[in-house]
Amino acid sequence: MESIGRRGDTLERIVKNIICYQQLKFSEYIRSKTTCYASNVHTYSGNHHHLGHCAVASLRAEKEIRLERINFLQFIFNWDLGLNLLAYLYFQLNIKSIMKSRPYLCFWFDGKAREAAELYCSLFPNSQILSDGGLTVNFELNGQRIMGLNGGPMFLPTEANSLVIECENQAEIDHYWNGLTANGGEEGHCGWCKDPYGFSWQVIPAELGKWMSHPSNGQKITEAFLKMKKFDCQILETIYQS
């Protein structure tokens, strides 16, 4: 983050220097035009036949100055647009560095964080225990980091928080449902269950949203799974296709 900040400061200084340089050039140009105009006035002032030429030169100089002012304002405006685009691209290129700190879950256990981590890692693919410091156990479930905290018996998990597992087929539903409810877990309704440590899970079909949005059978599907504990994909798919 510090290096990103330093690079951003450097970029800002460069841009400011460029704009200051353009302002200096513009000022020098105005001074040169003013000098030229004054010289023309002095040249023509002694000759009445050339007063018309003097007026023309004056108008031409004023017009050129106005055009230069417009060009300079356009330059500043274009730089502003360019900087906004550059800032957007810079953010996109460095988003991974900027977003290093990702939130992760912390489960409160009564001394069984390691045991729970081993159960979870045995159920989910691409999972592993990262560290075990006694008080805390860090592990990954399919790439999602979780920390288990052996905090004691004072706080218990509730259904107010649950983890959702979207399953592609009935075999996956059976796998997670049976694994989480075994050895002291509890079966709930509508795909909800508790693991042996009291944490709530929702084991649902990935197609559930599509089934429920069916224009004529969506309500029937909802009524059907409200009577279920573990989801039965075949029954719900049959209603959807009817």
Structural write-up:
By secondary structure, the chain is of the alpha/beta class. The chain folds into three domains: 2-98; 102-156, 2,3-Dihydroxybiphenyl 1,2-Dioxygenase, domain 1, CATH 3.10.180.10; 157-242, 2,3-Dihydroxybiphenyl 1,2-Dioxygenase, domain 1, CATH 3.10.180.10. It is 56% helix and 17% strand. The protein has helices at 2-45, 51-93, 95-98, 113-123, 170-181, 208-212, 218-225, 233-241, and strands at residues 105-109, 128-132, 136-141, 144-150, 162-167, 186-187, 192-194, 200-205. The strands form two sheets. A four-stranded mixed sheet has the order 1-4-3-2, covered by helices on one side. Strands 5-8-7-6 form a four-stranded mixed sheet, covered by helices on one side. Strand 2 (128-132) and strand 3 form a beta hairpin. The longest helix is centred in the first third of the chain and has 44 residues, at 2-45. The radius of gyration is 36 Å and the shape is elongated. It starts with a helix and ends with a helix.
Quantity of strands, as a count: 8
Indicate the mean pLDDT: 80
> Tally the helices: what do you get?
8
Helix fraction bin:
55-70%
Give the low-pLDDT segments.
1-5, 44-48
Outline the biggest β-sheet. 4 strands, mixed
Characterize the overall form: elongated
Give a summary of the structure in a few sentences.
This protein is an alpha/beta fold and 242 residues long. The protein has helices at residues 2-45, 51-93, 95-98, 113-123, 170-181, 208-212, 218-225, 233-241; strands at 105-109, 128-132, 136-141, 144-150, 162-167, 186-187, 192-194, 200-205.
